[in-house]
Amino acid sequence: MPKFQLARRRFLTAASLGLSGLALSGCDAFDFLQDRDNGVRNFLEGTNDLTYRAQRLLAGRDSLAQEYSEADIRQPQRPNGVTAPDDETYKALLANDFADWRLEVTGLVERPLSLTRQQLMNMPARTQITRHDCVEGWSCIAKWTGVPLALVLDAAVVKPTARYVVFHCLDTIENSLSGEVKYYGSIDLIDARHPQTILAYAVNGKPLPVENGAPLRARVERQLGYKMPKYLKGIELVDSFAAMGLGKGGYWEDRGYDWYGGI
Ligand SMILES: Nc1nc2c(c(=O)[nH]1)N[C@H]1C(S)=C(S)[C@@H](COP(=O)(O)O)O[C@H]1N2
Ligand SMILES: [Mo]
Predict the structure, then answer these.
(1) Structural domain tally of the chain?
(2) Residues 220, 209: Cα–Cα separation, whole Å
(3) Which residues is 109 bridged to in the sheet?
(4) Which side of the chain, N or C, has fewer Cβ within a 10 Å radius?
(5) How far is the CA of 217 from the centre of ligand 1 (A)?
(6) Is the model's pLDDT at 17 over the cut of 50?
(7) What is the pLDDT of residue 177?
(8) pLDDT by residue (tens digit) across 54-74?
(9) Residue 11 lies in a domain
(10) pLDDT of residue 47
(11) What pLDDT does 61 receive?
């Protein structure tokens, strides 16, 4: 029995080092691992530890943002940034209560989608009471309901080369000499598939009002407010956003904000 355990331990050591391709007959090649003072073993353990810590860092990004109770909702979601898009396209969609609006899912996907609001509302929904933190220094607790972005991504079948989700918006946030600038933003696929990352169509139990991004806005609860684009018209799967806008991955990122707005 002890002999079996020893052999098994040696095998696990080899396997965990990713050396399973080596001939393991007798495992003699790894005998030096039994020697605790062996420098090679110490080095390998250090590498393992590094892998572990890297994993924990990633797992940390997967952890949930705090969720609150109804009693914590003390005011309507404070509108910020663009709160009434002046764009003709937007105003026409709004006038028809978004019956002609579609969410276009494009880019590095096997199956591009064009979804109505009703189709999105027919998908499984998630409701969460979370705190919105704006980089300007205010916070607001609200209840958000929407479809998990992961479900939309699965329906579109993301290609393996995709790395980011880019959110394209309907609102013009700035008019410059070179033309109008539409709001846009991006997150990586880890945040896109986070369980609390939803495409929200309701806030505090009511349809999303114009000021908070009707008909659809992103909620990315582990990041700051500017990472949650409102007035969505499309999401695009890309492997780089270098060619978009000024190349930094978002309207505010192009103006100096961090791409990763973690909180
Ligand atoms: N399309 C669009 N999305 C946007 C903005 C904007 O101006 N346009 N402002 C951002 C910022 S800085 C914040 S704090 C939040 C504000 O969301 P709220 O109006 O629902 O509070 O939206 C973010 N998403
Ligand atoms: Mo913000």
Answers:
(1) 1
(2) 19
(3) 158
(4) N
(5) 9
(6) no
(7) 87
(8) 665 665 777 899 999 999 999
(9) no
(10) 62
(11) 76
Are 118 and 248 in contact by the 8 Å Cβ rule? The answer is: no
Nearest ligand 1 atom to the CA of 169 is: 1
**Could you tell me if 142 and 204 are in contact, meaning their C-beta atoms sit under 8 angstroms apart?**
yes
How sure is the predictor about 41, in pLDDT bands with cuts at 50, 70 and 90? low
Q: Tell me, what DSSP letter sits at residue 165?
A: E
What's the 138 CA to ligand 2 centre distance in angstroms? Answer: 9
Measured distance CA(228)–CA(213) in Å, rounded: 10
Residue 4 resides in a domain? no
Percentage, residues of the chain above pLDDT 70: 78
Residue 261, domain member (yes or no): no
Q: Hey, which of 211, 228, 231 would you mutate to test ligand 1's pocket, going by the most ligand atoms within 8 Å of its Cβ?
A: 228
CA distance to 28, 63, 72, 129, per residue, from 235 (Å): 54, 24, 32, 24
CATH of the domain at 126: 3.90.420.10
User: Does the pLDDT value for residue 46 go beyond 50?
Assistant: yes
Nearest to 171 by CA among 85, 67, 109: 85
